[in-house]
């Protein structure tokens, strides 16, 4: 048996190595083949370079290695002679011409043939075309001289895909239950997320949030609940304008004016559609949780983020870079206590690339309380233009019948001295009994001092006089008749300093108001690595954070936290912490020791603590937190026990559903944004990417949080693929517009692998070199000497066809029991007539 296989392998290698080649064809000396029936050899599919039997194939098209969208039906025409190459035999549809990225000169050289249905690239000297049936791909190589400039990190708009029609529901749900020793019980449930519908290039969205709270003890029961869609809207990407068009309820986040919410229409340029560059500043949320807590970040009435965190310090860095204005943060401890604070998101100096316009235009009515409208319609917007490498000019306006405001500013790149912008805003507010006119002045500065390894991430100053009104302030005063709290001065600075083994961050914000007391916020964060011999082979980490908030009447909130983290072995560490907090006239001390660990898909922590302070009883506590990344959700659970006080349990789930014409799949939440559905031909349990996400029983999986306007790559994790599965096209890529539901099919073959001898009814074997294919026209094997064939991806009772002479000639019906342990399986190949051939051809 092994002797025959060795002879077969040598014969094929010799046949290819001692041939006489022309530009388009190869003549094989079949005399070197050690086959008894030398005339029963079919080398026709190898005689022409790149020969592919005529027919219709679903192929993925690549140009210079770049995928051009999803697989398409491509027709291969009959090649009548050896002088015809694949450039004139493969029918590439004419509607794909714009996807190739050719220069204008190159496009004019491309001609049409086959009733003007196909593209002929013969005139583009150096162009090559090959078809790989094993991977069902069509690969086109075009010399760079014929191609437009391509940024390797950016995909041109012509290749962006709008995705497929579908609907989805993304959500993040949290639950906690607390029982106090007194008998009082509290239950808290909350959820937020986005429901969406995609139709063509349009995306319909509804952001929702809901909560339920029940507290009862003795004869007293309190119960509250709420549900609301914080906004309902639709949007689409305008590729030619590099902008987003939005209709409905939305938030206008401005770099010039205060952000506000409206119902109407807006058009905003989106830098993500441009080649890669800095695209903005995103705020981060830093705080301390005393217990397993729920952190909620809101902008106006909209919930931007809600997540659970274990006890200790937390840092949230996942907010969108487009968020502007004041963010309200609520930290809800498991005992029901809530801490609230606000941060002002910083704006970096307003600079625009030379010759580029950026803009935000809006028209609609202002909103409050979710969906209530107020005032006359407003037309507004802002624009920036890059005058040169050094200077940028920007400004904007907001207008309605009773309110007008205009802003004008200039940005300057100071090169070695950083970047600076200055602007002035004038407002005119016509109220019922008076007209107010005021101005606001602003200065922003940023600089990275590489020599001293220091970043002034942001430094700014703003002053507004007494009669200055923002649009939201004017609308509130007009609606309620009461004067809102108006800002006077605001100073902000964010400073980072880097040493070899030490990092230091400082932030300071000081705000004054015309009708209120000033407010000051300080923050300090420092960290360093220290060596503790005998405890760990890695350096321990020592960190310190301190914050202070000063409000009216001398009220101060202070917090100081010191952490020492000692790693023991991969993924495991012990943390010692000391913290001090003071709110009003009451202070609190906390001593804690925790053990934590993480694996590829999960993490956990266990903490033991002791608390004491003024106006409170001393108490000890034990808490635990566990989270796991599942294929279809991210889940976490937590529990706490405080003797003589309370015990609490909680959990969260982050998940979603996406439904398309291809099926329904549960998945991790994509937060209402872009996602990619992978189809593995109905075969489930196929691992993708890092292997955590797997296809469901229907062969579907959804990859969340796919980049918009940037190429994303998805792949089958072949190292974790079960033994009975095979794939030859394990990787795919896609570039999707914002909010799209992408779709890719990765061909997976499920079945056995075995050697077989194919025999015809006349006692002979199919010709040497004949192709064995399944119902999807995928080649599963090539017939060798004496009919010996290595077959892969076959299933019991499956029907296969054997091709030679450019068409199917006989059919194989596999038995119900495929005994792969035997050395060889004899398979009769029944001759089929033209009617049967027509039924089995794809």
UniProtKB/TrEMBL annotation:
Residues in the signal sequence: 1-25
Top-level taxon of the source organism: Bacteria
Keyword Cell division: no
Domain PapC-like C-terminal: 760-813
Keyword annotations: Cell outer membrane, Membrane, Signal, Transmembrane, Transmembrane beta strand, Transport
Protein family (similarity comment): Belongs to the fimbrial export usher family.
InterPro entries, per database record: Fimb_usher, FimD_plug_dom, PapC-like_C, PapC-like_C_sf, PapC_N, PapC_N_sf
Membrane is among the record's keywords: yes
Alphabetical list of Pfam families matching this protein: PapC_C, PapC_N, Usher
Record membrane topology: Multi-pass membrane protein
Sequence ranges assigned to domain PapC N-terminal in this UniProt record: 27-175
Protein name from the UniProt record: Fimbria/pilus outer membrane usher protein
Cell location: Cell outer membrane
Organism: Providencia manganoxydans
